[in-house]
Structures are given as C-alpha cells and as structure tokens.
What we know:
The protein is an all-alpha fold. It is 72% helix and 2% strand. Strand 1 (2-3) and strand 2 form a beta hairpin.
Amino acid sequence: MKCSGLPVGRLPDEALLSGLATGDPELAVAFVRRFQHTVFGVAVAVLGDPQLAEDIAQQTFERAWRHAQIYDSRRGSVTTWLTTIAHNLAIDAVRSRRPEPLAPEDLDALLGVVTQTPEQFALADEASSRLRAAVARLPREQGRALVMAGIYGMTAQQIADKEKIPLGTAKTRIRTAMGRLRTTLTSPKRGDDV
C-alpha cells in the first residue's frame, strides 16, 4: 500500500501513528515493526527480564493505539512519546514486583549501566542522553540517592537506612542532585551558540 505516493515503510512516524489510531491494519503493522526493537530495548533495559519486557512492549503498543489521537508533536517525537510510555510501564512493573532490595555495592554497577546500555541506543533522543550524562556527572553518593529515589521509588528514609546515613543527609543528597540536574538540563547545551 502507498499513502501520499510513499511506500508504507517510508511514511513519517506521525502518519503511521495516525494509521494506528484509525485502525488501518497495514499502517498499524508498519508502526509496530518500526518501533518494536526500540520499545523492547527500553523495556528490557529497565526490567532485565526479556519475557516481562515482551509483555511491556505489547502493553506499550496497546496504550499507543488507545491514546494515539492525543499525541502532540509539539511535546516530542513519536519515538520519544512511545519510549516514554514503555519506560513508565516498565518502571511500574518494577515497582509492582517488589524485588529484593539492591545491595548498595551493586548500585555502583547500576549507575554505570544507566549511562551505557542498550537503552542508550533505544532512547537516542537528545533529552534522555543529556539526562543520563547529567546523572553520570553527579557525585557518586548523590547519583546513588537520586537513582534509588527516582528509579526504584525509595523514600528518603529507605535510602537513609540502605546507605546507613542520617535521614537529613539522604534528603540533602536527593535535593542537591535534583538541583544540579535542573541547572544542567536548563542551561544551554555546549555548541548551541555556534
């Protein structure tokens, strides 16, 4: 099938998303094929479980189909929108599984993974790359506190207990890390003034 004179595989992302919204089976298949590796990559990077990642990928496409009509290109690309859905669903799955607490010594390895994983390639979006780089530049203890709070959903008290630090110190680390990220991410990128 050709739309607007283009083969389906060469249609813009937004056109495929519109086809998904209208229920066009050929455009829906093309949409899934275009994004399936990216969505699965995000899910597996967050979950570490390929079988659960497949379920999350399916849920992502179902949610995209149900909400395609509310997609707003001014807020980001289709890829960014879809990977955000996948990431949020994967985080929800992690939280609902209530895994065994991660040992603090294992968190250092996780921080390295946050900056160099298949997710880096799946989420090639500039904003996510800047965020990962900004987290990697934080002092280690602030980065750990931020990841425990933001990704694992731990409270400041849980972080304090896990890190064996006072509650106020845990709160300060989280607050300081968030402030540094905000400053880094809202400042102009290097090279923008060229």
